[in-house]
Amino acid sequence: MAGRLSKLLDPARISLSVQSGKRTVALNEVARLLDGHPEVTNFQGFYNELLARERLDTTCLGNEIALPHARTEHVHKIVLAVGRSDQGVHFENGNQTVRLMFVLGTPKSNPGDYLTVVSALCKILKDSANRDALMRADTPEAFIQAVTAAEDKLLAPAVA
């Protein structure tokens, strides 16, 4: 992955109103945003691996955030879809309510990209002001702008 997390975001792959409060239905709703993505070679194969990974262990990060993901041969390059739920989605395997889901598909052949994206997400999401901005964004474009602003803040040189 060259560059920034915000470059992976596409307004068409961001849902700011996930409808279901049930984990598997909500996961399907968000993952489905990647169906037809040019880098996804087999959506059903990717989705099956996403569910299999989700059954292994919780993907909840805390702070009402989850990172459902799959390292798979069904994507050529890293792909990302985002879902936000105002009412929250119950992730019973982590016993947490999640309001932001970042669904990630990454090629098995390139684990470095996955680690880069997760690291960038964690740095952005650990700041409550960034989380608040993402929860307040009223359009997918505003969501991407909030991610971009958070990245800019992280990349800015520290002022002594």
UniProtKB/TrEMBL annotation:
The keyword Transport applies. CDD domains: PTS_IIA_fru. The keyword Transport applies. Keywords: Sugar transport, Transport. Residues 7-150 form the PTS EIIA type-2 domain. This is PTS glucose transporter subunit IIA. It comes from Nibricoccus aquaticus.
